[in-house]
Amino acid sequence: MKRLSDVLGTVFADSDVPNAARANIVMRQWSSAVGDILAMHSTPDRYDHGVLWVEATGSAWAQEIRMSQGIILDKMNEIAGEVLFREIRVCHRARKPDMVR
Questions:
Q1: What CA–CA distance (Å, rounded) separates 53 from 55?
Q2: Sign of CA pseudo-dihedral 92, 70, 12, 22
Q3: Per the confidence metrics, is the pTM higher than 0.85?
Q4: pLDDT tens readout for residues 46-69
């Protein structure tokens, strides 16, 4: 049987675990970083070793994020108070159909 301290030591040996936790807090403030309109058409999906993965509702919105990557990264890192985000990768997803009433 392993001791809890041994298990936790290996989890936190990967320095990205604490960064990912802090990044997830910042990702909740997506609309503050990109503005309301872009936030309506995109969602931060995950953080992985400095890469912010974003889903956009279409290829045009994905391209907008790619073209604004530097500004978005600066704003996200400003919100974080440190450099957590180094790159943005964007994929587009089909917009979910509105619910029929």
A1: 7
A2: negative
A3: no
A4: 999 999 999 999 999 999 999 999
Q: Strand, coil or helix: what is 68?
A: coil
Quote the number of domains for the chain: 1
Q: Strand 42-48 to strand 87-92: parallel, antiparallel, or no bridges (unpaired)?
A: unpaired
Please give the structure tokens belonging to residue 88.
């943005």
Assign residue 20 the CATH number of its domain.
3.30.300.180
Stretch (H or E) spanning 32: helix 30-34
Tell me which residue range forms the domain holding 83: 15-92
Q: Alpha carbon of 64 to those of 12, 27, 56, 93: distances in Å?
A: 36, 18, 9, 14
Residue 77 lies inside a defined structural domain of this protein: yes
